[in-house]
Amino acid sequence: MNPVWFLVGGGTAGLALLVYWQMIVAEGTYLGPRVVAWTYDLVASRYDDIKQFNPRDESWFVAGPLLRALDGVERPLVLDVATGTGRLPLALLREHLAARGGRIAGLDLSPGMLRRARAKLRLHGDAVRLIRHDASRLPFEDGTFDAVTCLESLEFMPRPQAVLREMVRVLAPGGVLLVTNRVGAEARFLPGRALARPHFQALMEALPLREVEIRPWQASYDLSTARKEGAARPPGSGVRDPLLLLLCPACGGRLARAGTGLACPGCTRHYALDDGIADLVIARERIGT
Ligand SMILES: C[S@@+](CC[C@H](N)C(=O)[O-])C[C@H]1O[C@@H](n2cnc3c(N)ncnc32)[C@H](O)[C@@H]1O
Fold first, then answer.
1. CB-based contacts of 101: which residues, under 8 Å, 6+ apart?
2. What domain count does the chain have?
3. Residue 226 contacts residue 177 (beta carbons within 8 Å)
4. What pLDDT does 20 receive?
5. DSSP E strands: which ranges in 29-170?
6. Is the CB of 36 under 6 A from ligand 1?
7. What whole-number percentage of the chain has pLDDT above 90?
8. Which of 29, 61, 277, 281 pairs as cysteine with 130 (C-beta 3.0–4.6 A)?
9. Element housing 270 (H / E)
């Protein structure tokens, strides 16, 4: 074969493999959070069909155990990081989180995924709030939530360990953390993102967490639960609307309702509340300009 064609063919195949790895296997994670969010925007309308979640499994393996771990907490407040199309909020609401007076905030960077979540969760009214923001800095005060969850997403974040620390930061003392870690064959192609089991275990134990449990869940994921150190907050310490617990990404001030959106009394920035989705990303972009 002509060596030029050999080089061109080899180069093209190499490039195709690189693109396949970056965009399909790694879902854009090495190209930054905005690329990941964009890839999820592209698949948002088909995501649930692709995943084929089984409501009974979701209740049995995730929502039920989480709610049992929250027994004794009146009106629990839950944060689902990288909520996607609202899988976990939906499972918790099916298991009567709202009947217990609980509320849930779902945070994601992909507007497309959040719009799907909104459509599915509309029936549940303000029991669930949706927030567009990057998980690497959670816009809440320390110790805000009784439970913080993150399913099938940590491996798509540039610094999964830092996101875990953020999740523990916003968890109340005695609160419950529920996260997945990517395992299996494809995890080998996500260096620095999917953590080897012993590394993940060590990381969880190094956080201020107790009762760390890691167990195989699906072929590609381990499921881990743990509790933040410290005593659980007194019952009835009061659920509030998660939207009114949001902090301004620019100055850290507490946001308040203003007209059809949210505003920061400190720096006067406004944030859109579009069809019930609080968008805290646009304002962050403006800050950098
Ligand atoms: C595989 S989906 C999982 C969604 C949902 N947790 C579930 O189990 O169905 C990954 C989600 O992570 C979100 N995501 C990825 N990187 C993010 C980031 N840095 N901040 C917020 N969300 C992010 C994506 O937009 C996507 O919705």
1. 74, 75, 239
2. 2
3. yes
4. 76
5. 77-81, 103-108, 128-132, 145-150
6. yes
7. 70
8. 277
9. strand 270-274
Let me know if residue 6 belongs to a domain: no
**17 in a domain, yes or no?**
no
Please tell me the predicted confidence (pLDDT) of residue 288: 40
Q: What is the pLDDT of residue 283?
A: 52
Q: Which has the higher per-residue pLDDT, 236 or 244?
A: 244
Q: Please answer whether residues 84 and 40 qualify as being in contact, where contact means their C-beta atoms are separated by less than 8 angstroms.
A: yes
Q: Is the CB of 84 under 6 A from ligand 1?
A: yes
Question: Do 197 and 78 fall within a single domain?
Answer: yes
**156-176, pLDDT tens digit by residue?**
999 999 999 999 999 999 999
Average pLDDT, integer, range 82-97: 96
pLDDT at 287 over 50: no
Rg, Å, the chain Cα set: 20
Same domain, 274 and 181: no
**Chain-wide mean pLDDT for the chain?**
90
CA-nearest of 108, 90, 19 to 53 is 90
Query: What is the DSSP track for 14-54?
Result: HHHHHHIIIIIISTTGGG-HHHHHHHHHHHTTTHHHHH---
Look at residue 186 in the predicted model and tell me its pLDDT: 86
Q: Is 245 in the pocket of ligand 1 (CB under 6 A)?
A: no
Shared-domain flag, residues 156 and 78: yes
Q: Is 151 in the pocket of ligand 1 (CB under 6 A)?
A: yes
Domain CATH code at residue 191: 3.40.50.150
* Residues spanned by the domain of 267: 246-288
Task: Kindly state whether residues 70 and 195 are assigned to the same domain.
Answer: yes
Please give the number of the atom of ligand 1 that sits closest to the Cα of 113: 27
User: Which atom from ligand 1 is nearest to the alpha carbon of 51?
Assistant: 9
**Do 155 and 261 belong to one domain?**
no
> What is the rounded average pLDDT of the residues 140-159?
95
